[in-house]
Specification:
The protein contains 11 helices and 2 strands, in the order H-H-H-H-E-E-H-H-H-H-H-H-H. The protein is mainly α. Strand 1 and strand 2 form a beta hairpin. Helix 1 packs across helix 6 and helix 10 packs across helix 11. It has one domain. This is Branched-chain amino acid ABC transporter permease. It is found in: Cell membrane.
Length: 299
């Protein structure tokens, strides 16, 4: 190969890495926004978040394999996302709400969700077995532009993730529930005084975040695999993104998700995928040492 061909090959590889980073980053952003929302409103961290990511993937797998793709992936989203919303709402009402009547309930909720994550992951192993499951691509084929080749699957995952984030932003800024969520996050006592039903907002927050991570589970499980324990890695990434962006900062979580998606892609390309998690923790520890409140958290 000539020097020019070597350079072109490197450029094409870099573009592939960037696309991979943007695709993963968009899904991470979708999930991080939901986790940040829960923390911002309740000041409690949902450790079962990764397990709900898996649940969305498993629900989609069940529907595809036992119901079929009538109507394509649209029917999967139409069935699974509202189902995940209902699961999140039921979780908050039956398990989280009773704890809010106790002292230091935020810590108790974190312990509850940690135990729930262990239960759910082991339940997946019993019900679905230890072997990995896979979802078909949302759209087959590639888009070729000159010597560049783009996967339709990556394009659709990116588009749907961004659409989900924009829809979430619209709900947050243009609906009564969304504005009430913001009010509770900014000033819980003030929200209570003006008559905002805090209990209902807490339930809505858990439901929305669970629907978002379930949606992310459907999208990302097409690129990778679903296994009983794969939610653990997603939980760690979501936590790193939330802490790196600034606890409770949705904008910080969005920035952090894309930064970490790109970092993960470049580290995987340079050193191998096994080093990706190490790089995330190095980034997090460095950030916390220099700016403990994260990128956009309040000091």
């Amino acid at each position: 190969m000539t020097m020019n061909e070597d350079t072109l090959f490197l450029i094409y590889e870099l573009i592939d890495v960037i696309i991979s980073g943007l695709t993963n980053g968009s899904v991470y952003a979708l999930m991080a926004v939901g986790l940040t929302l829960v923390y911002g409103v309740t000041k409690a961290f949902n450790f079962a978040y990764g397990s709900f990511f898996n649940l969305g993937g498993y629900f989609a797998w069940i529907m595809i394999n036992f119901v079929g793709l009538v109507g394509g992936y649209f029917s999967v989203f139409l069935a699974v996302v509202p189902l995940m919303f209902a699961v999140g709402y039921a979780l908050e009402k039956t398990m989280v709400a009773p704890l809010r009547k106790r002292d230091e309930w935020e810590m108790k909720v974190m312990m509850l969700t940690l135990g729930l994550a262990l239960f759910m992951d082991n339940l997946y192993a019993v019900v679905f077995g230890g072997r990995v499951k896979s979802l078909p691509a949302i759209l087959e084929g590639t888009l070729e532009t000159g010597n560049l080749v783009f996967s339709y699957q990556d394009i659709m995952i990116f588009f749907l993730s961004i659409s989900g984030i924009l829809l979430f932003g619209w709900i947050l800024n243009n609906t009564r529930t969304g504005m009430a969520v913001q009010a509770v996050a900014q000033n819980p006592e003030g929200a209570r005084i003006v008559g905002i039903p805090k209990n209902r907002i807490f339930a809505a927050t858990f439901a929305i975040s669970t629907a978002m991570v379930g949606f992310g589970g459907i999208l990302l499980s097409q690129k990778y695999f679903i296994s009983p324990m794969s939610g653990g890695a997603i939980m760690i990434k979501s936590w790193v993104i939330t802490a790196f962006g600034g606890m409770g900062s949705i904008r910080g979580g969005l920035y952090a998700a894309f930064i970490i998606g790109m970092l993960e892609a470049f580290v995987g390309w340079t050193f191998g995928m096994s080093y990706g998690m190490i790089a995330l923790f190095v980034l997090l520890l460095t950030t916390l040492a220099v700016r403990p409140q994260g990128l956009m958290g309040k000091g």
